[in-house]
Structure formats: structure tokens, C-alpha cells
Amino acid sequence: MRTIIELYDERPVENILSTEVFRPERTIILCDREIYQNKSLQSKMRRFLRHRGIESKLVFLQTEIYDTERILAKLNAVIKRYPDCVLDITGGTDAALFAGGLICAKTNLPAFTYSRKRNRFFNIHNAAFADGLECHVQYSVEDCILAAGGAMRTGRVDNSLLYKYAEHFDEFFSIYLKYKSSWTKTIGFIQRASAAGKDEPISLSVRSAYEVKGERGSLIPAPEDALREFERIGFIKHLSIKRGKSVSFRFKDVQTRAWLRDVGSVLELYIYKQCLDCGVFQDVRTSVIVDWEGDLRRENVTNEIDVMASRATIPIFISCKTCAITTEALNELAVLRDRFGGKFAKAVAVTSQRCRSITSHRAS
């Protein structure tokens, strides 16, 4: 196979998956004027193919994607120049698909499609090579983001080191459940007790009064039992509590310091571990920073995804909340799913609090 014709689709993977599987010399993408003039988008698609080790050439041809006659004319021109071409009708507008059907009825042009649900290619017309062909392509979390024209930045967590801590994540979550009602105060105490001055370096050693100032002039006493639990699982060490007077301990390292100073980290780490343990996903990451433009400039729009996983070519976006989930949070998650995953991507909101029925309804 030397030439694949693609009907441009807003779902990123639909435009490149066949190229990855069949590795043609060239892929010709029929698109509208906006996409034809969008050199940045085209560059990102070529960058992704290079990232995946694919040398196929991408050629963009402009047409009116809602005008069947114009699409037919463009298809005829492509067939005349590349008589060995095949047509992928996985994506595209209704007019483009109709035009593809018409031209297949008049010629022997091979046509095939891909089913995300079955993860297989199927012969539509004269394309026996694709009939029932299983797709073995697997995307990492970063691949899913790159395929949609974005980029992945370094987040709060070094995912390459998480295996060192994973055995303690279930215990960490159990501690959270045990002290759930006072968790915000527990983390609040640690935040204030370990706060560094403006020009001071971050220290792993903590020495604090037994009570620290909370919000609105309140005092937060040392959460003795929770601190002892943190010491038991190895997140802190050298714990010394002088009731009513002082508290001192040392964080295991910078990473555990960050987790014990952040209210929501415990749920994120637990969900991350559950995604790993279920054995369904080929890649799982936490604290994924998505750069919308993909060029990593400082001024670009970014979003952080608490946990993200991928299965085959489908990304799953997971938002973790130890507080009640808001409509705004659901909307933000849906936007990320649609922008970087498309129709078959999944968005999941996880909360340790009861949801209002209206929120559950909106989520579904």
C-alpha cells in the first residue's frame, strides 16, 4: 500500500491511526480551508508521526467538506494521480462519506474503516487486507496528548519514581479514611509547621509549637495519632511529640513532604495505584500537565489532570476531589476529554464525599 486517502475528522486519532498501522508512503488528507491553512496543526501531526517512528508523508488537499460534488472531483483527481490509493472512511463529514461511497460504487477503489468499539479494521469495498484486522497500536499518556496537538509538561510528581512508594499508597489512603473528618486540619497543621520563609530553602526537618495558627485566628493542635501513622508507613521519621509544647519530625524526602502538605494528594495516589493494579491500562500517570499549544511556551494555556491512563489508543481523564465535585470541575474535565481525546475518550470524576443528585446527573 503506497497511498491512503483520509477524510479529515475533528477526532485526532481518526486522521493518523491507519497511517500508523499500514505505513504507506504517503497519506493524503482531504480537509476544509481552515485546516488546509493551519500550518501549525499540520506540523504537529507530522511531529507526532516522527515521534512514533513513522516516515509516511502527509499531504493536505483543500476541498469543501460539505459539498459532495467537490469532494468527488478531488477524489477523482487523487485516484488519477495515485491509482494505487485506498480510502479510509473512518472519519469525515456525512458529505465526505457519501462521496466516498459514490466513487467506490463506480470504481474498484478499496475502502476500509476502523471500529474503536471492536478495535479492528473492516473491509468496506475491495479491501480484503483490512478485513477483521486487529489493531495492536498502544498509546502512552504522552502519545494521546501529542496526537491531539498538545504536549506533556513535568507535573508535581516524578512518575518515574512512584514505584518506590507504591506499596504504601493503600495504607496512606487507609489513614485518610480513618481521619477523614479532620484531614484538612491534619494537612493544615503540617503545612504551617513545615512552612519555609520567603528566602529560606526547603527543609525536611520540622520543629514546631504544639499548636499552630489556623484560619481566622483559630489554633490547630498537633494531630498526634495521624502523625504516628505517617511515621509507621515511613513518610516521616524521628517523630517527637511533647504534648502542649512542641512537635518535631523529619520528612522521608521531598516527595513525601509534598504529599503530606497537599490535601488531595492522598486520593490521587490511591486512584493511581488502583489503575495500575487493575491491569487494564498500558500506561498510568498522575499530575499530568497538558500544554494546549504543544510548544511548551511559558504563556501557553495549561491544565493539570490528577490521573490519566491509556488503553490501546483511548485516553482516560480522571479528576480526584476530596471535597464535593462542582459543575465547574465537571465542565473543565469534559473540555479536556473532548480536546485531547475525542468521542471515545473517557472522563471520570472521583470524590470521597457524597455527591448531590444533580451533580451525579450532570456527570453522567
UniProtKB/TrEMBL annotation:
Gene3D superfamilies: 3.40.1350.10, Hypothetical protein VC1899 like domain (Restriction endonuclease-like) (3.40.50.10770)
Pfam families (UniProt xref): Card1_endonuc
Residue stretches making up the Card1 endonuclease domain: 264-359
A GO term for molecular function: nucleic acid binding
Domain of life: Bacteria
Name listed for the protein in its UniProt record: DUF1887 family protein
Source species: Candidatus Faeciplasma gallinarum
